[in-house]
Structure formats: structure tokens, C-alpha cells
């Protein structure tokens, strides 16, 4: 008999499991509630398959046997020249693609709302970065993808850049017009690197957007665990035919650097099986998923105030329908909490005005029925009007929230020092309100989605403080790299 008090993680997970939450979040296998026989087979073999590199099991970094065969099948499935299984998430793929393709001091054009791993790679590689800002989807207050015209302007001023890195799809399922962007990069002799972490499922159904590689990207990273029935931390790096052998060799050397020297074979097996499930059932189950999501959209269309993101809200972007972004007159985080506490529905993420749900082929129709029932209940509640008014009044009480629409535009902090320079200088801890005009010594990252608001070396503006206060009053999570225990303080460079 296990004494659960002596195994707190197990105790916590058991408690969570027994809540039987409806999971609209990653990992994409959704705890195998759908009961894929392939995943049940893996489950039965967890301990017998948990191996690493011994004679007879091949080697992830010099694949010649089963891993080589699996990676060939993977490349076919992903439509790439070569695909690599990753065991440390898209994060290690992003480090490897950026540091494999650029050299110290090279200039790289970066979409400012990329995931924090992109900025870490720039730091690790001592690269010089120039930002291109994303467009904003006004009705939802969402920072989205990069527009080719905006990128063209930045390229015009930075012809010496070696590469461009963008995120597509975004956390919200919006996809850039990669064809136009890749043509622009080719015309200017720049490589196009795509963080496609949220798009691992694209090549498995004709209903989904085209992949970055098929649209001309030189390299793209996909997280298998986010949208496919695969274990957390599994991901795949996809290379296009445009890359030379020398470039590939350097990327491979980085993959060894940034991944464990004891790769988990459970992760490799999980990637292999997820690909197999998608190849054999992906198209059919994606159609089923679309039917479920269409029904939700139909059912929500007559709820006053609710808006669901789709192509009609976008300009020069496409959309991945498997991502449900629901804009709500209640604050995003409040609605997420209500869904969780009252209806056992767990969403992936909430921001100021939206909740974000991840749909995958592992979902069942009942999950979507539960979601519709809960939202109808919340919004049809005779208390809703009162709830909404209380909410708005509460927001107005807090002067930081008066200007809710001002969050539309991401703050654009000025870079005063690069990250390395900032790290080497003396720092001091000051009250957030006293930090305006000072240079930050740390990074501030709302999580999720993990897009840095401020990086070390950037100037703190009043706009940023307003944004931070809004995050705090909405109980959204903000990660500070140094002063994590001091909610109202921040490290700045000492003057
Ligand atoms: C856009 C984006 N890129 C990269 C990552 C990192 O992926 P992983 O968690 O697989 O390392 C994330 C994680 O949420 C992400 O949202």
C-alpha cells in the first residue's frame, strides 16, 4: 500500500486526475480519455520501453537503425528533407536551428512576440537582433503574426541580416502568409526560420493550413506534445531541401549540445506512435474534430457578447480551426476560473479578454457538449448581467484597467543594452512604479504564452508598468527571471 503523504507529486497528480477535468489543453493526447489502442499499447510497455542508448537500441545522434527508419518515416509525414526527433521540446529545436544556422554577431530579424526560447537562443549565440512587430487583431486584443509588408520595411533597413525568425501559427492559431514572407527572404538572401510549435498536426489533414516547410521556410520546429497524441516534451525539427550539408551538420551538432545525452526512448516511441496514429486516422478524426468545433461555434453564435475567432477577423492570415479562441465580456481569466471551478473544464490559457482552448483528434464529442452546456449556463444565467456589471465596476475601480483597449498594442520597449551587457552591470531592486525610465536587469514573461514583455537591457516605460499591473489584477501569471519572490519590485541596472 503506497503512503501518498510520502510521495507528494503522486498525491497531487492523483488528486488532479480524480477531478476528471475536461481537458482543452496540452498535451494533445488528452490523457488518452478517448482510449486509442495504440496509446494503451504504449502504456502497457512504459517500463519495458524506458531505455536509452545501449547496444541494440540505436543512437539518437548517430541514427543508423530503428531511429533512422523512424526519422525517414517522420520526414515523409512532415514533408521535409529531414526530420529529427526531439526529446527536450521545441525549445531545444529552436536553440539548435538558430545557433546551427547563424554565427556569433550575425544579425537576425525577430518577430517581437516570439516565444522566450527564441530570445534565449539569441542570447546564447551572441547574435544581434532587430525586431519586427506583429499585427494586432483588434476585436480580440491579440498580438498575431508578422505581415510581409512590415517585414519588407525592416528588411529594407537591415539588408545585412542573415535570417528572419517568425512564429506561425501563434498560440491563438493564426498563421502568417509564409509564402510571401519566404519569397521576401529569398529575394534578400536571408534564411527563414519558423517556430511552428503549435502546428505539428498541419500535414496530417487537408482541412488544416499548409506547413511552413511546404510554403518555403528553410527550417521549422513543431511540438508534437501540443497538438498530437504524444507525451509532453516531444517535438520534431523539420529541414527543407534548401539547406546544405554543411548547414545540416552544424544543426546536428547543436542538437547534441541542447538535448540530453540520455534521450528518453519513451519520448521517441511516443513520437513514432503519434505519427502512426495521425497517418492512419488523422484525416478522419480531424474531420470529426471539425464537426465538433463547428457545432460549438453554431451553438455559441447566439450568446450575446461572445465572439469566436475565425478567418473573418483576420487580414492576410489563415486560421487553424482546431484552436478555439473565445472573446468574452467577462475577463478571460475570470471565465477560465469559472469553467474550471464550476464545470471542471480546463482551458489552455486565458488573457485579458479571451480564453484559448486546444482541440485535438483525441477529443470526444462529449467534451464539446460539456463546453457548450457550461458556456450557455454561464451566459444565460440571470445573474450574468449583474456579474458583468460587477466585473466592469471592479475594473473601473482600478485605474490601470480603465483603458482596457490600450492593451491592444504590445509595449515596444527600446533596447538600451544587449542582454550580456545588462547582465554584467550592477543591479538594484526597485518598486515597479519607480522603475519607469530605468533599464531592466531581468526579463518579464507572462506565462502562458511565454512571450517576453521586457528583456534585460530594455527600457521600462509607463506603458509596460500599466501592462504589468493589469496582468497582476487579472491574476495572470508573470514570470520574472530574477526577482520572482518580489511581486511589486523589479531589478534594474544601477545608476
Ligand atoms: C510559440 C511557442 N514556441 C515554442 C514553445 C516551446 O515549446 P516546448 O514547450 O515544446 O519546448 C512554446 C511553448 O509553449 C510556444 O508556445
Automatic annotation (TrEMBL):
<keyword id="KW-0210">Decarboxylase</keyword>
<feature type="domain" description="Orn/Lys/Arg decarboxylase C-terminal">
    <location>
        <begin position="391"/>
        <end position="473"/>
    </location>
</feature>
<comment type="similarity">
    <text>Belongs to the Orn/Lys/Arg decarboxylase class-I family.</text>
</comment>
<protein>
    <submittedName>
        <fullName>Putative SpeA</fullName>
        <ecNumber>4.1.1.18</ecNumber>
    </submittedName>
</protein>
<dbReference type="InterPro" id="IPR000310">
    <property type="entry name" value="Orn/Lys/Arg_deCO2ase_major_dom"/>
</dbReference>
<dbReference type="Pfam" id="PF03711">
    <property type="entry name" value="OKR_DC_1_C"/>
</dbReference>
<dbReference type="GO" id="GO:0008923">
    <property type="term" value="F:lysine decarboxylase activity"/>
</dbReference>
<dbReference type="InterPro" id="IPR015424">
    <property type="entry name" value="PyrdxlP-dep_Trfase"/>
</dbReference>
<keyword id="KW-0663">Pyridoxal phosphate</keyword>
<dbReference type="InterPro" id="IPR015421">
    <property type="entry name" value="PyrdxlP-dep_Trfase_major"/>
</dbReference>
<feature type="domain" description="Orn/Lys/Arg decarboxylases family 1 pyridoxal-P attachment site">
    <location>
        <begin position="8"/>
        <end position="318"/>
    </location>
</feature>
<dbReference type="InterPro" id="IPR008286">
    <property type="entry name" value="Prn/Lys/Arg_de-COase_C"/>
</dbReference>
<keyword id="KW-0456">Lyase</keyword>
<dbReference type="Pfam" id="PF01276">
    <property type="entry name" value="OKR_DC_1"/>
</dbReference>
<dbReference type="InterPro" id="IPR052357">
    <property type="entry name" value="Orn_Lys_Arg_decarboxylase-I"/>
</dbReference>
Amino acid at each position: 500500500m503506497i503512503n501518498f503523504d510520502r510521495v507528494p507529486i503522486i498525491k497531487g497528480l492523483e488528486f488532479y486526475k480524480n477531478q476528471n477535468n475536461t481537458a482543452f489543453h496540452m498535451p494533445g493526447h488528452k490523457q488518452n480519455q478517448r482510449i486509442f489502442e495504440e496509446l494503451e499499447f504504449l502504456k502497457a510497455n512504459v517500463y519495458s520501453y524506458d531505455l536509452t542508448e545501449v547496444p541494440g537500441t540505436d543512437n539518437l545522434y548517430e541514427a543508423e537503425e530503428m531511429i533512422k527508419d523512424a526519422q525517414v518515416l517522420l520526414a515523409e509525414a512532415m514533408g521535409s528533407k529531414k526530420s529529427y526527433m526531439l526529446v527536450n521540446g521545441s525549445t531545444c529545436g529552436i536553440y539548435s536551428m538558430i545557433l546551427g544556422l547563424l554565427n556569433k554577431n550575425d544579425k537576425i530579424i525577430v518577430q517581437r512576440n516570439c516565444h522566450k526560447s527564441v530570445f534565449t537562443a539569441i542570447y546564447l549565440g551572441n547574435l544581434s537582433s532587430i525586431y519586427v512587430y506583429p499585427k494586432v487583431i483588434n476585436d480580440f486584443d491579440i498580438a498575431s503574426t508578422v505581415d510581409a509588408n512590415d517585414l519588407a520595411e525592416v528588411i529594407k533597413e537591415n539588408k545585412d541580416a542573415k535570417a528572419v525568425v517568425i512564429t506561425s501559427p501563434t498560440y491563438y492559431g493564426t498563421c502568417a502568409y509564409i509564402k510571401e514572407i519566404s519569397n521576401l527572404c529569398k529575394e534578400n538572401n536571408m534564411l527563414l526560420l519558423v517556430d511552428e510549435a503549435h502546428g505539428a498536426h498541419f500535414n496530417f489533414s487537408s482541412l488544416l493550413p499548409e506547413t511552413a516547410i511546404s510554403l518555403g521556410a528553410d527550417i521549422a520546429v513543431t511540438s508534437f506534445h501540443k497538438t498530437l497524441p504524444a507525451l509532453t516534451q516531444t517535438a520534431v525539427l523539420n529541414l527543407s531541401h534548401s539547406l546544405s550539408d554543411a548547414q545540416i551538420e552544424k544543426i546536428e551538432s547543436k542538437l547534441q549540445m541542447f538535448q540530453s545525452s540520455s534521450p528518453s526512448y519513451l519520448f521517441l516511441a511516443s513520437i513514432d506512435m503519434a505519427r502512426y496514429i495521425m497517418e492512419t486516422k488523422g484525416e478522419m478524426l480531424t474531420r470529426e474534430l471539425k464537426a465538433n468545433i463547428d457545432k460549438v461555434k453554431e451553438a455559441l453564435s447566439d450568446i450575446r457578447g461572445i465572439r469566436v475567432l475565425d478567418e473573418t477577423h483576420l487580414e492576410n492570415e489563415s486560421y487553424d480551426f482546431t484552436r478555439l479562441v473565445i472573446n468574452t465580456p467577462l475577463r478571460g481569466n475570470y471565465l477560465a476560473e469559472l469553467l474550471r471551478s464550476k464545470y471542471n473544464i480546463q482551458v489552455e490559457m486565458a488573457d485579458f479578454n479571451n480564453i484559448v482552448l486546444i482541440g485535438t483528434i483525441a477529443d470526444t464529442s462529449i467534451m464539446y457538449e460539456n463546453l457548450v452546456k457550461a458556456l450557455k449556463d454561464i451566459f444565460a444565467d440571470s445573474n450574468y448581467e449583474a456579474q458583468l456589471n460587477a466585473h466592469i465596476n471592479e475594473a473601473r475601480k482600478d485605474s490601470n484597467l480603465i483603458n482596457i483597449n490600450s492593451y491592444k498594442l504590445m509595449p515596444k520597449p527600446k533596447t538600451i543594452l544587449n542582454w550580456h551587457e545588462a547582465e554584467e552591470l550592477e543591479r538594484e531592486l526597485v518598486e515597479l512604479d519607480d522603475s519607469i525610465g530605468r533599464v531592466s536587469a531581468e526579463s518579464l514573461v507572462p506565462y502562458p504564452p511565454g512571450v517576453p514583455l521586457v528583456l534585460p537591457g530594455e527600457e521600462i516605460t509607463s506603458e509596460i508598468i500599466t501592462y504589468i499591473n493589469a496582468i497582476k489584477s487579472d491574476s495572470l501569471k508573470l514570470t520574472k527571471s530574477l526577482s520572482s519572490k518580489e511581486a511589486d519590485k523589479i531589478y534594474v541596472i544601477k545608476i
